[in-house]
Design brief:
With 240 residues, the protein is an alpha/beta fold. Strands 3-2-1-4-5-7-6 form a 7-stranded mixed beta sheet, sandwiched between helices. The longest helix has 23 residues. The chain is globular, with a radius of gyration of 17 Å.
């Protein structure tokens, strides 16, 4: 199992991920957009547009972090968006950002375990998650619980990093991800392990058809994958 802090063998992946995001929360938004050259914003917009025909009124944003995906989901004009994350540090920055933008009446952020969600069955019209399922300690368990809280007929949209397939682009991407990203990440956040974990976790993550197989095993149907920007990221859609 890939973890951020390999020397801390006594702590679980969940504990390490929470610690990692607490450590980098003050620089997370800036580095996210800087390292992706702002493309992550376009990816989120595209993922949210896929939900427009559904007109979801209640949305759950898993691994919400500082609330970027939840804020993007406002374009769907829902009545309520709930964001859940295991990092108190990320949530603190998110609440401040959402309040400053004047959306704290619609978006509520709360501390919670993505693999043991604190909501009743069939609670939300849509479940969304961007760059979060890769950090689950147990992917199948997390996806199954997302399915549980989704209403019958509801849609789940997962945006996650994947591995490019083109020979030349794959090598350029891997070099950037393995060497440039940790160096820049360390400079701004002072936590090199967090940005070394990023490429390691992407390499270990079951993307494409492998993810869809786990998605379906977790109870989702009508699943499909949409590749983005030469395969750097993918959107996975599933229905309950």
């Amino acid at each position: 199992m890939v973890v951020p802090y390999k020397e801390e063998q006594d702590s679980s992946k969940k504990e390490q991920v929470a610690k990692m995001f607490d450590n980098i929360s003050h620089r997370y938004d800036f580095l996210n957009h800087f390292l992706s050259l702002g493309i992550d914003i376009l990816w989120r917009k595209k993922a949210i547009r896929l939900l427009k025909p559904e007109k979801p009124q209640t949305i759950l944003d898993i691994a919400t972090g500082t609330g970027d995906f939840a804020l993007e989901a406002l374009a769907l004009k829902p009545k309520k968006i709930v964001g859940v994350d295991i990092s108190a540090g990320m949530l603190a920055h998110g609440r401040e950002k959402i309040k400053k933008l004047g959306h704290d009446d619609i978006i509520e952020l709360q501390l919670g375990d993505s693999e043991k969600l604190p909501f009743p069955d069939n609670s939300f019209d849509a479940v969304i998650v961007s760059f979060g399922v890769r950090n689950f300690e147990n992917l199948g368990k997390g996806l199954s619980d997302m399915n549980r809280v989704l209403k019958p007929g509801g849609t789940c949209v997962v945006l996650e990093f994947s591995k490019p397939k083109g020979f030349l682009f794959k090598h350029l991407y891997n070099f950037y991800f393995k060497y440039i990203t940790p160096t820049i990440g360390e400079f701004f956040s002072k936590d090199r392990a967090a940005y070394s974990y990023l490429p390691e976790s992407v390499q270990a993550f079951p993307d494409g058809k492998d993810f869809l197989a786990i998605y379906e095993q977790s109870g989702f149907r009508q699943t499909r994958a949409i590749s983005l920007t030469f395969g750097i990221s993918s959107i996975y859609i599933g229905k309950k």
